[in-house]
Design a protein that fits this description.
By secondary structure, the protein is α/β, with parallel strands linked by helices. The protein has helices at residues 22-29, 58-65, 70-73, 92-95, 115-122, 130-133, 137-141, 205-211, 228-233, 247-253, 280-286; strands spanning 2-7, 39-43, 49-52, 82-86, 109-113, 142-146, 152-155, 159-165, 170-171, 177-178, 183-189, 192-197, 214-220, 259-265, 290-291, 297-299. The N and C termini lie close together (5 Å).
Length: 300
């Protein structure tokens, strides 16, 4: 398996358009510090891929990493490298890029997601939601498929993908998740296995048990401190309330976990770990862990 990080930022990207914090100012001055919204592509052969999450930057990401060559596209000049799309949850930075598939060569591409997210995005044939009607998206170009908690599908001729619920999205009084349930995804091929959880509210004992023996854990690193938004932007909100484990907690919780590599993604523009001149990055590295960057490739 080869994993390509198409993007590694949270919903605002880096820089965020309405912010002049130190990280955003630095990223405007230095393109190497910029980050697109989080997404990965997974392949077995370097030819066909699955995509996990489809955010605001999807077109730019697909152009950079999955565009066909003229030789591959043949006489028609058109082809898609994507076999399937998996979506973790209903927040905008993981879903709005689905609109990108209402044109092109991706006819009938399966889009897997928690069942309540499929209903939220596409509705039903009788009562379609926005993506259900957009440019005949759900009629011609994609096939929305609800994936039950713990259900496994096989794609790319042998890559097994299993979605399972993790805490992140808001729970309403009636027990529903808003706007949807959140899944992490477990990928396995042969003896290799990794877990992708870009949005995670709690590292539970159940999750720790599942991690045991995995080759790679890619995990949420939205904020460093629980009160980061207050410290940096004066916003009275916390990391935990927004459904993210603060990175300073994850570093300690995952320090001795039985995983080959721990790699962090989904950074908010306020996160001090993004500044290479500060000590936070070294704290991650000293724990034997890593920060993902846009374009990073990991082969398992």
């Amino acid at each position: 398996m080869e994993i390509t990080f198409l993007g590694t930022a949270s919903i605002g990207g880096v820089p965020e358009w309405d912010c002049a914090c130190a990280n955003c100012v630095n990223a405007r001055a230095d393109p190497a510090l910029r980050r697109n919204r989080s997404s990965i592509a997974v392949t077995l052969d370097g030819k066909r891929y699955i995509l996990v999450d489809a955010g605001h930057d999807l077109k730019r990401q697909l152009e950079a990493h999955l565009a066909p060559t003229a030789e591959e596209a043949g006489e028609t000049g058109r082809m898609s490298r994507l076999d399937a799309v998996f979506i973790t949850h209903g927040h905008a930075d993981h879903t709005v890029g689905v609109a990108e598939f209402c044109t092109g060569k991706s006819f009938k591409i399966p889009v897997y997601a928690p069942p309540d997210l499929i209903r939220f995005l596409f509705g039903t044939e009788e009562r379609p939601a926005y993506f259900g009607e957009l440019g005949r998206l759900a009629r011609d170009y994609v096939e929305p498929r609800g994936l039950s908690d713990g259900e496994e599908v096989t794609t790319l001729g042998g890559l097994k993908v299993r979605g399972f619920e993790v805490p992140h999205t808001q729970e309403l009084p009636d027990g529903r998740r808003y706007p949807s349930t959140t899944y992490a995804y477990e990928f396995s091929h042969g003896e290799r296995r990794f877990i992708y959880a870009p949005d995670l509210g709690q590292i539970t004992d159940k999750l720790m048990d599942r991690l045991g023996g995995a080759d790679l854990f890619v995990v949420d690193a939205c904020f460093w401190w629980d009160d980061e938004l207050t410290r940096v932007s004066g916003i009275p909100e916390t990391s935990h309330r927004l459904g993210h484990v603060p990175l300073e907690e994850s570093v300690e919780l995952l320090r001795d976990v039985d995983v080959g590599r721990v790699v962090y993604t989904h950074f908010n523009h306020t996160n001090p770990v993004l500044d290479p001149s500060k000590s936070y990055r070294k704290m991650v590295e000293d724990a034997g862990q890593e920060l993902a960057s846009d374009g990073l490739r990991i082969r398992l």
